[in-house]
Amino acid sequence: MSTDSRSVLVTGASGGIGRAVCARLAQSGRALVLAARDQGRLLALCDELQSVRPGRYEAIPVDMGDDLAIAAFGERLVDQGTVLDGVVMMPPQMPPTNDCMPPNDTWRTLFQRSFIGPLGLLKAAIPAMQPDPAQGQRVKVVIISAITSVQALGNYATSNVLRCAWLAEAKTLAFALGARGIHINTLSLGATLTPDYMASLQRRAEQAGVSFAQRLADETSNIPLAKYGRPEEVAVVVEQLLGALSDHMTGANLLHDGGFTRAY
Ligand SMILES: NC(=O)c1ccc[n+]([C@@H]2O[C@H](COP(=O)([O-])OP(=O)(O)OC[C@H]3O[C@@H](n4cnc5c(N)ncnc54)[C@H](OP(=O)(O)O)[C@@H]3O)[C@@H](O)[C@H]2O)c1
Fold first, then answer.
1. What is the pLDDT of residues 14-53, one digit of tens each?
2. Angle 16-27/39-52 helices, nearest 10 degrees?
3. H-run or E-run covering 257
4. CATH number, domain at 17?
5. Counting atoms of ligand 1 from 1, which one is nearest the CA of 62?
6. How many domains does the chain have?
7. For the chain, where are the E strands, in sequence order?
8. 49 in a structural domain
9. Residue 222 lies in a domain
10. 181-to-143, 172, 246 alpha-carbon distances in Å
11. Residue-averaged pLDDT of the chain
12. How far is Cα 153 from Cα 132, in angstroms, rounded to an integer?
């Protein structure tokens, strides 16, 4: 059974990293609110988590591109009396592109889905938080980002912009919400071997006419730890950031990239 009446909200819960985060938190006895668009996948995940460890897992579908759906999501949390002591915010991915000046409509869609929408969801979730730092009750928000938050990458032109916007917003929120006991930290990932990422790696291997293992070795040869991250490794760090590790940390941006980023 869950050991805590408070819940952690995980957005992008049914994705490659989200599933690993949910499994890890469920193993630790955390109650979870799972969010993404596809309700069927969320409900299936709730069932899987029950088999990992019986507990309180709730699926609430929401589309980050839809302001009305986001407002309804927040109202539902409050109406049903959900109390959040953690949020793992995973803004939907920006697809790789080297087009640094895409059409205005592309920018509008990306900003809505990957910045304005997720930020709106976080805002809508704040009334469901009841931090009380004097009693040691803190709320930990972990925003999943990418290493384009600290360095521009040629093939991630729109990600370069949006991740920096998130970094600035996270730091600003950290200042605004710190005294209330709400912590905002960012975890910037390098390439992580989700099923989708493995499939794209397989395609690149086939295009290059080499084996999967060879392609993986080639792509990771410029990473000090000579490997890509695994979703389970991300989940360990997220769990720690939701816990006592971050009791005196807010506004921080941690890199989870095997040492790939050269900047200090
Ligand atoms: N994998 C990597 O190599 C990598 C690297 C750097 C950063 N990241 C970041 O890590 C996070 C998770 O990545 P991932 O690889 O696990 O992604 P993923 O497998 O593509 O999963 C995406 C998740 O977000 C949900 N989602 C997509 N569009 C949505 C929308 N409009 N509204 C609400 N939910 C939506 C999906 O479910 P539905 O389709 O049902 O909505 C799914 O649960 C993302 O923030 C990503 O940018 C990943």
1. 999 999 999 999 999 999 999 999 999 999 999 999 999 9
2. 30
3. none
4. 3.40.50.720
5. 33
6. 1
7. 7-11, 31-36, 57-61, 84-89, 139-146, 182-189, 253-256
8. yes
9. no
10. 16, 15, 11
11. 96
12. 41
Q: In terms of residue numbers, what domain contains 66? A: 7-192+229-256
d(CA 248, CA 264): 22
Q: Please report whether residue 1 resides in a domain.
A: no
Q: Could you give the residue ranges of the DSSP H alpha helices within 148-264?
A: 157-177, 195-208, 212-219, 231-242
Q: Measured between alpha carbons, how far is 208 from 124 in angstroms, rounded to an integer? A: 46
Helix (H) / strand (E) element for 73: namely helix 67-79
Are 41 and 49 spatial neighbours (Cβ–Cβ below 8 Å)? no
233 in any annotated domain: yes
Please name the residues in contact with 185: beta carbons below 8 A apart, sequence gap of 6 or more. 140, 141, 142, 143, 170, 174, 241, 246, 249, 250, 251, 252, 253, 254
Q: Whose CA is nearest to atom 21 of ligand 1?
A: 15
Cα 42 to ligand 1 centroid, rounded to whole Å? 13
Residue 90 Cα to ligand 1 midpoint, Å, equals: 6
| pLDDT at residue 1, rounded to an integer | 37
Question: Which positions ≥6 away from 12 have C-beta within 8 Å?
Answer: 18, 35, 36, 90, 91, 92, 144
Q: In angstroms, what is the span from residue 92 Cα to ligand 1's centroid?
A: 4
CA-based nearest residue to 47, from 31, 35, 58: 58
Q: What is the chain's alpha carbon radius of gyration, rounded to the nearest angstrom?
A: 18
